[in-house]
Every structure is written in C-alpha cells, then in structure tokens.
Amino acid sequence: MKVNYKIWLENEQGERVMGKGLLVLLSLIEQTGSINKAAKVLGMSYRAAWGKLNKAEEELGYDLIERRSGGRGGGGSRLTEKGNRLLDKFNKFSNKVDQELNTMFLDFFNK
Amino acid sequence: MKVNYKIWLENEQGERVMGKGLLVLLSLIEQTGSINKAAKVLGMSYRAAWGKLNKAEEELGYDLIERRSGGRGGGGSRLTEKGNRLLDKFNKFSNKVDQELNTMFLDFFNK
DNA sequence: AGACGTTATGCTATGATTGACATAACGAAA
DNA sequence: TTTCGTTATGTCAATCATAGCATAACGTCT
Predict the structure, then answer these.
(1) What CATH number does the domain located at B16-95 have?
(2) What are the domain boundaries of chain A?
(3) Each residue of A18-52: pLDDT tens digit?
(4) Nearest to residue A6, comparing CAs of A22, A20, A27?
C-alpha cells in the first residue's frame, strides 16, 4: 500500500494553470532553447506541447515564454521573468509537498 | 491563485484502491444501508457505483462491503470490519493532508 | 405462488480528452 | 532568393472514461 497524488495551481476560475507536466516542459524549454526540442525529449508532439503552453498562458493572463520564429536556427523560445518565477516557486512547493506527504503517510499507515 | 489536488491509495501494482470518490460512496452505503440508495444520493447510477466497488475490492484483495440480495426490503449492504478500518484511516489521513497542504500553500504563495 | 427492492452484469451510446496530420509563416544567413 | 528549423493553428481520428439501458437472480414476506 502506498500513497500517490496530483497537485496543481488554479486561477480564480478554477482552470488549472500549472502542474507537473507543464513544470517539466518549461524546464526543458529553458534547457534546450525550443518548444520543439523539449517536446521531442518528452516524447510528445510539438502540437501537444504548444497547446499546453497556450492554454496555460491564456488562463494565467501573462506569457510564460518568449517565442521567436525565423532567423538562424529557425528561432526558439525561452522563459520570461514571470515564467521563471512561477516555475521556480511551483518546483519548490511541489518538492516540499512530496516530502511532507510521505511523512504523513508513514505516520498514518505504517504503524 | 489557489492550489488543488487529488490524493489516493495504491496497491503494489499501482492500481488505485481508495480515493475521495470511494470514500464518500462507502460512507453513504453505511448511512443508507444500500449501494442503490447511496448512488442515488450522489446522483450516480447504481451501475457506476457497483463498478467502482467491484474494482476496488478486486484490487485490494478483500471485501469492503457485505452484500445481501433478496429478503425483506430487497436486501442491502454494509461495511465489513476491514472496509470500515480503511475508510476511517483514509478519512483522517485526507483531512490531515487538506489541512497541511493549505498551510504550505499559504507559506509559499501568499507572501 | 407473487410481489418487491435490492444486488449482479453485459452491452451500447455518448462525450471528452488526446494525438496525429497537414500546412503556413517567419526571418537570418548563405 | 533559397534554405532551414522553428513557431503557429485548424482539422480530423482515435482512444478512453462515463452514463444509461436492459435483464437476471435473490430471498423474505404476504
């Protein structure tokens, strides 16, 4: 017997604007410099990644990444300042939750 | 901005054997004395409730409820001892998680 | 034997979410 | 002006979860 969970952030309308999927995607965009490469690493289509990002940005009301198309190398994307802050906060938060949840689970279920 | 989450218990195979939906359903079965009545209260079909219960019991490897069909009133169902214990534990656990999670969220996001 | 309300279970329809395909636009460099 | 890899976006298909329908069995009481 073990515990599992999903956690996410919502805006005022209850739409989910940040979760673990988006967290990983954003991290990889920052690392690789493009949505396309990040999607490939995750084994998802560019279309799916693009949709996720768009939806999140729309529901947040601000941009998470800066996009350039064209130019040398075709362009690319990088996190905005706000995107970076949200990513960092949620990352730390979810790590903390992970820790605490496991502790609580052991308290309740393993003796 | 607010936080939301889903939490559940899994068996060794990673199949989910207890969550908030089942928690409420089991509580109502204990209160009403039948799967049928509990399902009606929740606005779900008997078929759906029955499926949930079956799946959970199969994956747990033991019975959560005792079922009788036929007889006066048609029969009914009530929690087994083990079912009651699991229900109680998960209830307390998820209440605790609820509390802690909100505290953590405020720590991280509301200043 | 008949009635009643419950449990038991297969099957189908429906809706929602996800994924794949196709095509266009972009802009710097050669 | 051609090339290249990226972003942008509509559309259709497929997959999956859920709802509902239909039918059978059960057992006590009248």
Answers:
(1) 1.10.10.10
(2) 16-104
(3) 999 999 999 999 999 999 999 999 999 999 999 99
(4) A20
